[in-house]
Amino acid sequence: MNRHQPLAIAIAMTLLSTTAEAQRARARDLGVKPGVFQPGKLNAITDVAGVRVGQTTIIEGDSIRTGVTAILPHGGNLFQDRVPAALHVGNGFGKITGVTQLRELGELETPILLTCTLCVWRTADAMVGYLLEQPGMQSVRSINPVVAETNDGTLNNIRARAVKRSG
Question: Which domain covers residue 85, as residue numbers?
Answer without folding.
Answer: 7-17+45-160
